[in-house]
Specification:
Elements: E1 2-4, E2 11-15, E3 33-38, E4 45-48, E5 50-51, E6 63-68, E7 72-79, E8 91-97, E9 104-111, H1 145-151, H2 159-181, H3 187-199, H4 202-209, H5 211-222, H6 224-237, H7 240-248, H8 251-265
Parallel strand pairs: 1-9, 5-6
Antiparallel strand pairs: 2-7, 3-4, 3-8, 6-7, 8-9
Length: about 270
Amino acid sequence: MIRKADATDVTTYFQMRLLTGGDGTGLTITDFDLTYTRSGDDTSAKVDAVALAAADDPHTDNGMIEVDATSAQGLYRVDWPDAAFAAGVEEVVLTVKHADCFTESARVELVAYDPQDATSLGLSRIDAAISSRLATSGYTAPLSSAGTRAAVGLAAADLDGQLAAIAAFIDTEIAAIKTVTDLLPNGGALSDLATLEARLTAARAALLDNMDTAISTRATAVDMTTTLTDLTTLLARATETRLAELDEANIPTDVDALLARLTAAR
């Protein structure tokens, strides 16, 4: 429970339960002891309860009555003295005791504001409607719908139409990107490229870099100028007539006959 410090005419309600079980209904009010203990105090203030005539009687310090012995058996109204809620402590514990009942207590937090004040909670600095303070607070009102569209670059109020235009533009761009990506190797080719890159170590790359030098060195050793001159001379001599003679000559047969004669002579 919360109450403003220095609150007056505080009334609470306690449900009393018999030690033997059941609700403590029909008990004699003057047999109750009322005690309040303020935080930090080394003693509790105890008084005897005073019977009220009716449940709706005006507040009476230490007054007590069972609210309704038929419909709310064991529920008692208790009126506390103002001294229990005086400022200066953070809380007060209210206790109701009866010899035939369990002791019941309630903790009340004492605060600097008034939780019962629906207008300003009893705070002195809230002396006007909050809305009246906006004009001098540097507060900037939210953008209107037109201002919001201008802030995000939307020229018209037709949001659906503009979103459709944006979607069409995105489709066009995606199609253009797809045209390019379709020319890329497939997943397997890309995997092969990744494998090739992994195998192309620094040492192998160095060998590739040296290929041009190695080939040019071999070309120098062959003396390409002389070779090309001999080929040119050969082509000049290989006329159609001479090539025909070579075709008609039975060179293998003549060679075989020559070898046979040399053997017979020996």
